[in-house]
């Protein structure tokens, strides 16, 4: 038997993601048997995620009919129990007809709009591997949760892409970034229509004479909100980066006047990703791309390996900056994910700052100039300064301040520690924490350890005070 020193064991334990080690935030240390908690314990979104198990893989085998918006199929979920479990929840909003746990029919009940309660035939002991099969059907566009739907119905299909939740509209999951898993997504659609998802397209096969099945694999840990599905009529382009990564982009055939600008931006994905590798270190996944469905919304989302873009983002011409933003998230957000949703700055502050770095490189304004502009353009009584990027509250999770004031915090850090140390931090963090989860406070500690400087006061000023800082994030003497 191998004897290992205590410190080494401790280091190994630290390497295990919090969700695996502690069964998610939701599991109180006292409770080791009984039903799994209906939430993972995120104060911003109490219903998100669940306690009692940790998913390793989702296999989604689906069929979608654009004319009716009917989505139907089977999800097979591989998980491990993290407590003795008499019952557990899945987050999901479509109609479930049957659930099997380890091949045996389980009891199913529903609570609220998005909680499916599964009672296996016999209690599951802690630490067991379980296979959960969920058969389901429904029209995602008809599912509204608090009056909101994350599903985009388009003239020729539908799209799931939203943050912090989109999974409940199309597959059952443990819907929180603390429980990442790998994905196989296989979707049967009418001939002439494509199904786009994350990762690598493994196969395209005819089903009978009228249907085609698209099978995708995303083989690195992926948060549930970063899983995407887009069905519609697309132009597909493929390429490889100079480093050999496969690129697949998809453009709705219905982009009208925005088509040229969308392609002129997203076709630069490989170039942008390789530039970002110079800033953030090796790209964490094995596929690249982007897709633009014919949705009417105006946001983009860093869906893993293949970001979602809206046509409106290309209405004034090319917008490589949004491509930089979404690709930066592949490191900051997708590989290193939030621990809880209050930590959204570890995603958005860095994605915004990477746009400033791109501008600096392109000679369109330095990060310092952009920071000065943001600081000057919001007067002290602007509501902008009342939002604390380090803990903005669920209602302000995507407030402009999380992005712009969030990036000001990084400019302040850069000026405090100098360029050499700053860029060491930017590259070291996603390398050190790859495929994990992190809190804002973890980043502050990391920056302190790399720079050897106390930085709590600086981050308090830029991330945690509900007031305009009295001094701009000014460059140091002589800069
Ligand atoms: N992470 C996305 C981005 O910054 C934000 C998506 C916000 N969602 C929304 N409905 N506005 O690109
Ligand atoms: Zn973002």
TrEMBL record:
The entry's keywords: Aminopeptidase, Hydrolase, Metal-binding, Metalloprotease, Protease, Signal, Zinc
Catalytic activity: Release of an N-terminal amino acid, Xaa-|-Yaa- from a peptide, amide or arylamide. Xaa is preferably Ala, but may be most amino acids including Pro (slow action). When a terminal hydrophobic residue is followed by a prolyl residue, the two may be released as an intact Xaa-Pro dipeptide
Enzyme class (EC, first level): hydrolase
Domain Peptidase M1 membrane alanine aminopeptidase, chain residue ranges per copy: 318-462
Secretion signal, residue range per the UniProt entry: 1-20
Entry EC number(s): 3.4.11.2
Residue span of region Disordered: 23-43
SUPFAM superfamilies: Leukotriene A4 hydrolase N-terminal domain, Metalloproteases ('zincins'), catalytic domain
Cofactor(s) listed in the protein's UniProt record: Zn(2+)
Domain Aminopeptidase N-like N-terminal, residue spans: 56-226
InterPro entries assigned: Aminopeptidase_N-like_N, Aminopeptidase_N-like_N_sf, Peptidase_M1, Peptidase_M1_aminopeptidases, Peptidase_M1_dom, Peptidase_M4/M1_CTD_sf
Annotated GO MF terms: aminopeptidase activity
PANTHER family: AMINOPEPTIDASE N, PROTEASE M1 ZINC METALLOPROTEASE
Entry similarity comment: Belongs to the peptidase M1 family.
Name of the protein: Aminopeptidase N
Organism: Streptomyces cavernicola
